[in-house]
Amino acid sequence: MEERVAERLRGALGPFGFEVHAFKVGWYNAVLQPAFHLPYPDDTLAFVVLSTPSMFDKAFKPFINKERLKIISDPVDQCVSHHLSRVKEKFPDQKVDVIFDYEILPSRKPKFLAQTAAHVAGAAYYYQRKDVKLDPWGKKKIYGVCIHPKYGGWFAIRGLLLFPDIQVLLLKQPSPIDCVSTEEKRIKLLEQFNFHWKDARYRDIIEVKERYSEEQKAYFATPPAERFRLLGLTREAQ
Q: Which family does the similarity line name (predicted)?
């Protein structure tokens, strides 16, 4: 059942530069405090959705050209919402719940922890402080970061697709590929991500097969308030 659903999702989202990776809700809930649990039974089928570097040309630019007059919020979020919401049409007989990476609860907590979801689904390895044996940071706050085995840091986690009526008891959990395997490189990765993230060096911690285009880099390097102008949109559209 899981493979049939996955094939249909890949057919719907793959041509637009998205990846989908299956997981069971129980895998995710098992590694988090109850406050962050997803409110579904452990065997519920879910998918984490990533955008790859090609999403910008395959999904985002066509979306902007077509929906120019309807852009009322962050253009990338609106593009992702458009494509993930359309997935429901592919499953007319199934309930599909969508949670986006930008959604928050009334408590201001995120609705899901994106990097944890990517890790438990085997999509990308979530490198954290605990993965470094000789911690050099003392009392400094150090945030973790996911690295994709093909795209390094040149990707984004966009949302979850959950199928409440599908239980997958026998789904086997894949391990994410540990592509930053040495202590030295892990320290370098976390240093670059926490203290020099703007220069994007952490994204190239491994040799990548594809990265963001110069146009895409320029877009994401532009402050959000100025991105409308970059796209030729006016603030009146917002």
A: Belongs to the MMACHC family.
pLDDT at 234: 56
* Residue 131: half-sphere exposure toward Cβ, Cα within 13 Å: 22
Which are the contacts of 229, defined by CB distance < 8 A and separation ≥ 6? none
| Cα 182 to Cα 148: distance, rounded to the nearest angstrom | 16
- Which amino acid does the sequence have at 205? I
Cβ contact 83:9 at 8 Å? no
The H-or-E segment that residue 98 falls in is strand 97-100
Answering whether pTM is above 0.85, one says yes
CA distances from 116 to 41, 74, 212 (A): 18, 24, 23
Helix ranges restricted to H, the chain: 2-13, 25-30, 55, 61-67, 75-86, 114-120, 183-195, 214-221, 224-230
Q: What is the pLDDT of residues 3-35, one digit of tens each?
A: 999 999 999 999 999 999 999 999 999 999 999
Q: How far apart are CA 61 and CA 63, in angstroms?
A: 5
pLDDT < 50: residue spans in the chain:
235-238
Quote the pLDDT of residue 228.
82
**50, β-bridge pairs:** 19, 157
